[in-house]
């Protein structure tokens, strides 16, 4: 069963001191080479900035691509204070890793050549365009599919010095001429368009949403080891590298990617209720037009790319209040869409089981929840218990808005923590165990995030997305948590909360930064917005029957059956046998049961 293992602030402090003493790992751009388009293969003269798309693709109607895109984190990647602070600390740990980071977050920097300065200090307005319209719409499927891929792709791929064989690791391929691409065969554009089925596939999104640590390679025993310095990775397969993100893999191995799932309209917008691709959820379809001169369509894909970055979008909005290239209204819309996406991603069921409340959190998404870049992202259950007069008698998972801290010990927190093995500790001079130095991590310390429909342990472990310090059965896409009820409980309310900017993580990025002011800027913006306040995903309430303390199985007596259940659950942190609510089944619970023994 899961064992709560949280990164301690003292561990982070020691890590910061160690890096200061040992210095960064002397890695080169060659260490972070990935196949695909390289600096110099194309230029801003071929891949235009977003302003070239604005006049035709904005202010049309609900389907307007530019308006939706301009408020998204895709458009604002070059202005993201969280990313910039993360990249600074990563560069302090590992020389030149910023080049690899920018390939996904600020990919225009590869076109401009500014990614070669891994610090990001040479980024300009072209780079700050984020994941721009033309960038995505010039992408080529790196794996040529005869009869499906555009014929011109064969020559483009043949011209590359190093052609990708996998989707992931920012191994993108751009049409060097900037030929625009899209999935519509009946387009009416003023410019030439190559019809590209790739743009409708989840593989397209996998380009940047599966990320391995290029400095590591998986060993036969399943562990990871650092590669030799100044050499490119011996493999281009992200599954053979330590997992930094596995959103694409989680989807690829789910029921959504393998036949689709009827979600009854929860995702997808107009049209079929079957959800199968990333775009079905993150680019839901609406009636409208994508161009002022184009036809009206019943199924225009919205370019909102809503995810979970509510707090980040708020910080970007505040930090760019006077930036004429930032559409504040579009960011407000994007924030609301992100909240809506989070509220669709999970559901919850409550049940009274003897003296306990069972909270079942159900993953309704096509990947783990939470997913993505794992630092700071977490979901937890808040439970409040009230007596017959409506007074609060107990709370689990309390979040203190004043101090921006969570009572972590009292609830179930779904998250992923990475760490350093003994091998990595000796190589870096940093302590073994949980770490805040993600660029150096080579072990998964904890991953109890809830898997999607279609999950199997073997497949997810092979893909670098294993369950660690928890148990999920094959096919399970939910998790049950138990919370001890107090005797006078008459009603309970439970809420699943999401957070990606917890205080300890923001403080780490502030304190670990010894290079520039990105950490201080992040801290200031975090404080000036809502300080990473958690977002409710789903809420439920339940009336509670009279509680017989010690009655684990709910049969109306405290007897041998309850004793057996308690002993079988001994040591578990999450069980209906946890009678005093301290999240551990131990001697205190045994004493609690025996004191109420009815035989």
Give structural notes.
The chain is globular and about 80 Å long. Residues 1-21 have low confidence and may be disordered. Strands 13, 14, 17, 22 and 23 form a five-stranded antiparallel beta sheet that branches. It has a three-stranded antiparallel beta sheet with strand order 11-12-21. Strands 19-18-20 form a three-stranded antiparallel beta sheet. 49% of the residues are buried. The protein has 599 residues and is an alpha+beta fold. The longest helix is centred in the middle third of the chain and has 17 residues, at 328-344. 27% of the residues lie in helices and 18% in strands.
Feature tags:
alpha+beta; disordered N terminus; 5-stranded antiparallel β-sheet; 599 residues
Structural class: alpha+beta
Average pLDDT? 93
Q: Note the gap between the termini.
A: 30 Å
Please summarize the sheet with the most strands.
5 strands, antiparallel
SSE layout and pairing:
Layout lengths: L8 H14 L28 H7 L7 H6 L10 H13 L3 H9 L2 H5 L20 H4 L15 H7 L21 E3 L10 E3 L6 H8 L1 E3 L2 E3 L5 E3 L15 E4 L1 H6 L8 E2 L11 E2 L2 H5 L2 E4 L8 E5 L8 H10 L8 H17 L1 E8 L2 E8 L14 E9 L5 E5 L2 E2 L4 E2 L6 E2 L1 E5 L1 H7 L4 E2 L8 E5 L9 H6 L15 E7 L6 E9 L3 H10 L5 H11 L6 E9 L16 H9 L18 H8 L5
Parallel strand pairs: 1-2
Antiparallel strand pairs: 3-6, 4-5, 7-8, 9-10, 11-12, 12-21, 13-14, 13-17, 13-22, 15-16, 18-19, 18-20, 22-23
Helix pairs in contact: 1-16, 4-5, 4-17, 12-13, 12-17, 16-17, 18-19
